[in-house]
Amino acid sequence: MNPMTPARPAAQFKAPDFTALLSDRARRMNASAIREILKITQQPDIISFAGGLPAPELFPLEEVRQATNAALDRYGPAALQYSTTEGHPPLREWIGNRAGIPAANVQIVTGSQQGLDLLGKILISEGDTVLVEAPTYLGALQSFQPYGPSYVQMPTDDGGIDLDALEAILRTTPAKLLYAVPNFQNPTGRTLSAERRRRLVELTGQYGVLVIEDDPYGQLRFTGEAAPSLYELGLEYAGDVNANHVIYCSSFSKTLVPGLRDAWVQAAAPIISKLIQAKQGADLHTPTLNQMIVTELLDEVLPRQIERVRKAYGERAALMLGHIEEEFPGGVDFTRPEGGMFLWITLPGQIDSTKMLVRALTRNVAYVPGNPFFALGGGENTLRLSYSNATPEQIERGIKALGETIREALD
After folding, report:
1. Strands (E), 124-183
2. Is 388 in contact with 53 (CB distance < 8 Å)?
3. Which long-range contacts (CB under 8 A, 24 or more apart) does 90-98 make?
4. Going from the N-terminus, what domains does the chain have, and what CATH number goes with each?
5. pTM assigned to the model
6. C-alpha separations of 411 from 165, 203, 348, 351, 405 in Å
7. What is the largest CA-CA distance in the chain?
8. Ranges for the Aminotransferase class I/classII large domain (predicted)?
């Protein structure tokens, strides 16, 4: 305090009503149910199937160290300097070449979550109809919610989005945007078939609906045959990269390491142009050195790392499914993912998975209740399990404890 400024009597001071000063957009924000649960699971005795965390023991630590030194040697002080908003040119070129599109149609973002937030900012006006799967990725709902969308839930089954139901919705409901996770969906682990993908692209093209394809797990297939991306089908449908109504988002977080926060968006030029402006206002650019490190890893380390992660997650998924079959009572349904990090449990209708979580924690096992993954509510008898960051011994003990918890809830 300036000694020449008289002190203000404490009795006259009144703290601002911070809640009243918040914007309408801030009032629509919600805390992540997963992040709140993860606070509980920090206790060392808890077996957590809650967070969708990549397995840290699989991180290419030494390779990242070498890539960091290589980037610093190659670029010198430029590796630590401000850079262009669009992203590190060699990284954008690699992504563009892989997709068969110009680098100009690629925007680097700081994690897929930022990509979703920026897309929500530039595409969603208050009241716009946004189509989402039921259930859908909770992080997308968090990203879009502040911009005031009007959600319409698309029914799903074991094959993903019900396309007959989607067509019925589009006939009667003008929609601006459809958000989908077609590969090993978070939270269910389901995969949209090639036939349904093609029909989805055609329907949304006919009805003038933009599609956001979120694909962080697509490289992590451990069984079955890969299907073309919605973006690829959209490019085929439109015949021009700048007429493609599908926007593609992906990330290196699940294939390399999550902490570098390197991800990207592929889209038509008008979308990329606005993304650049939105990102300039958010953080100017994704960290320069992080992009350079990832670029050093692309040709040799990334392919090996993908195979390593695929193998490990496939083994863990099979182990978890085997123990579920042994330990869970009849009447419990579950998905059988072909890749990714998650599977989905549907309990008998009388069980509320949020209430059951309290009982599960007394047995030192945690999961994510299904309800937060539904934009308009529902799914009280569902839950998500992640097998990616669990040892075989944890999977065995945790699924046994969860089976006991379910049986207790049925009594």
Report:
1. 129-133, 150-154, 156-157, 160-161, 177-180
2. yes
3. 90/295, 91/262, 91/291, 91/292, 91/294, 91/295, 91/298, 92/264, 94/295, 94/298, 95/264, 95/266, 96/266
4. 30-59+303-410 (3.90.1150.10), 78-299 (3.40.640.10)
5. 0.93
6. 36, 46, 12, 10, 10
7. 77
8. 58-402
- Centroid of chain to Cα 199: 23
Strands (DSSP E) contained in 293-357 are 333-334, 342-346
Per-residue burial over 317-348, b if 16 or more Cβ lie within 10 Å, else e, is bebbbebbeebbeeebebbebbbbbbbbbbbe
pLDDT in tens, the chain (411 residues): 565 555 565 567 788 888 887 788 788 777 655 566 666 666 778 999 998 899 999 999 999 999 999 999 999 999 999 999 999 999 999 999 999 999 999 999 999 999 999 999 999 999 999 999 999 999 999 999 999 999 999 999 999 999 999 999 999 999 999 999 999 999 999 999 999 999 999 999 999 999 999 999 999 999 999 999 999 999 999 999 999 999 999 999 999 999 999 999 999 999 999 999 999 999 999 999 999 999 999 999 999 999 999 999 999 999 999 999 999 999 999 999 999 999 999 999 899 999 999 999 999 999 999 999 999 999 999 999 999 999 999 999 999 999 999 999 998
* Cα separation, 266 vs 96, whole angstroms: 8
Cβ within 8 Å of residue 310, ≥6 positions away = 219, 220, 221, 222, 339
Contact 188, 135 (CB under 8 A): yes
365-366 and 47-48: which strand pairing?
parallel
**CB-CB contact of 68 with 80 (8 Å):** no
Token code pair at residue 199: 């029909």
**Which class for 206: exposed (0-12), middle (13-18), buried (19 or more C-beta within 10 A)?**
exposed
Indicate the residue type of 184.
F
Q: For the chain, report the end-to-end CA distance as a whole number of angstroms.
A: 65
Cβ contact 302:256 at 8 Å: yes
